[in-house]
Design goal:
alpha+beta, Porin, 2 domains, 8-stranded antiparallel β-barrel, 15% helix, 59% strand
Length: 173
Amino acid sequence: MVKRNALSFAKAGAVVFLLLAGVFFASAQDPHIEKSYNKSRFSLTLTHTPLIPHELYSANLGISLGRHREWQIYAGIGGETAPIVTFPISFSYVFFMNSNHHLELGLGLISRLEFVREEPGNKLKTLFGPIGATVPLLYRYEAPYGLIIKAGAQLFYSWPVYLTPVISVGWRF
């Protein structure tokens, strides 16, 4: 019973948060805003995602597509606090482009390259494969001079499934 009430409370909180975020983003729109970086296509972001039991750090190169640069494709390289190299790739859409405040929603995949020593013979074994899929929901601030700050939550679908915070800082060029 308590678990069911907690789940209902979490769902209600998420709905209220999304409604408030929608009101904020809609009220922050200015159709006459002219951004100097509307023509820039590329961005570089550094991202931190705390996962259980490890933390994921990555550097991502992004390219913006579309008439208003609302479609984003990111590919990067990263690492965990464990001896693993990660390769994140994601595709996202940026809402509310007529403002410095945006909502970013996407889908992604993270693969890993891991080096493991096997005990018999002390041989080094290389493992490569997907870690899991991601669904980021982020607040994105883009300053008029190119600074990008993103923060939000990411559903990390692996075994088990995690809901993790995401913090990212970057530059558009």
